[in-house]
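USER:
Make up one protein:

ASSISTANT:
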Amino acid sequence: MSTATAPAATTSDRVTLRERVANPWGRPRFLAITTWVYILWSLVPVLLAIRFAFNEGRSRTSLQGWSLRWFWQDPTLSVFHDPTLQAALKHSLVLAAIVMVIATPLGTALALGMRRWHGRGSGVANVMMLLPLVTPELVFAVGMFLLFTTAFDFIGLGTTAQAIGQVTFTLSWVVLIVRGRLVTIGGDVEEAAADLGAPPLHVVGRVLLPLLVPAMAASLLVSFALSIDDFVVSQYLAAGADTTTVPMRIYSQARGGPTPALNALATIMLVVSLLALVLAYVVFRAMTRGEERGSPLQQIATMGETGG
């Protein structure tokens, strides 16, 4: 009776741990662990702040049960009964809506124009358009403050100045997002539409803009998030209590014995941002569903064959 013997281990099977770690082209064994550690590290502070928004007591450091007191049940200190917190929430949402409505179409138009501008000065314009992305926000806010208190003192500080400052800062992001989408679409789409007899306005309005809707939806979301989260520009261009945003209110009350109502206010803003994210995702999926049937160029050809 013979017993089977195990095959001898080859050299490739005897790979040491050091060789696995040192090999940059090997299997990323620690990638999943690193990713989850980062996600937990990012989410734990947010979840902790949300937890204290539902705290029954006034403490923001010790857990004291569960309650909706700081949202609306407290008759004087809750978000929906504190006039200062309500005013900050309303002003932040109004300011974000203004920035979204202005920055998205203006940034889309700038992206389209700069794509077609290949003459003298186009390179400088492209670089200048990206400067707000690398300019320190404090420097930008101080410059806008001096601008509205000297050269444009007829506008002055307030909601209008805050909206202009945030739109100026947000435009570069919109242009960057839309131009990225234009790169994926390519120039062949416009040429194909023109070859099929579409006039220039129809090429832009009926072909190019529908393909840019996903990028415009993403731009709306980014504009909303940047406006809601902005503190420096809003702080420098504010003109009083009526122009106080949520980040400004949280900062001003953070050192003066705050209650969990500030956590509740931040939680509401987080929920609004997440709803905007879900809405943008739904719009993106709805508007890019046709791309699953082929490339944009193939869709244009199909439209020409069907007379669409």
